[in-house]
């Protein structure tokens, strides 16, 4: 069977479980995810100075050079890409049929609350349960609606690009990324022979409490969510 894909992109957002998905896929020989290399603020991490021989200044000057280098690497290489990442590269990513598309989503309310907590605690990744910092945040309805509309617009853009170019994506949500059978199905979709025996244990869930315990004004949040047109989410 000829190779179908020579690269992959995980289209996701902050707090959707993309770090865990990357770590799990990275257990398979020949599969490498280089993280958020097109993040406007860094090259995949605040302490990353070079990626594939390129600096931040190099990437800003010409993002296509970095993408071409990544695709030329041995094995199957990919990235994580969010709605606010390098806008000059997204059309190239979407149009390329040899770049596999993985769309990772999460309940937007859980995603919003997790992001707010991480912003307050400054803990973006957790490798040890002992380092958890429980925190309750205040829900802001206007802020959430902006948060939601940006992500909805990005999902619609992805869907439309797939329709126009006749491509399909592998869709999974936060819970799916913790299911071994789903991950192995994804690896089959990517066309690699390797499979995982377990979900990566290098990361732990940061805020396992119920939503009502993580939101100080929970009744206000419930009232605000009742006014939202959720039907658009499954467009």
Could you walk me through the main structural features you see in this protein, from its secondary elements to its overall organization?
This protein is of the alpha/beta class and 235 residues long. The protein contains 9 helices and 5 strands; from the N terminus they run E-H-E-H-H-E-H-E-H-H-E-H-H-H. The protein has helices at 18-25, 56-61, 63-72, 87-95, 108-121, 141-165, 180-190, 211-214, 218-225, and strands at 7-11, 31-33, 76-81, 99-105, 170-173. A 5-stranded parallel β-sheet has the order 2-3-1-4-5, with helices on both faces. The mean pLDDT is 89.
Main sheet attributes: strand count, strand direction, barrel closure: 5 strands, parallel
Helix content: 40-55%
Structural class: alpha/beta
Helix-strand string: EHEHHEHEHHEHHH
> Low-confidence stretches at least 5 residues in length (pLDDT < 50)?
none
Spell out the blueprint of helices and strands.
Layout: E1 7-11, H1 18-25, E2 31-33, H2 56-61, H3 63-72, E3 76-81, H4 87-95, E4 99-105, H5 108-121, H6 141-165, E5 170-173, H7 180-190, H8 211-214, H9 218-225
Parallel strand pairs: 1-3, 1-4, 2-3, 4-5
Task: Name a few traits of the molecule.
alpha/beta; 5-stranded parallel sheet; 5 strands; 40% helix; globular
Summarize the structure.
It contains nine helices and five strands; from the N terminus they run βαβααβαβααβααα.
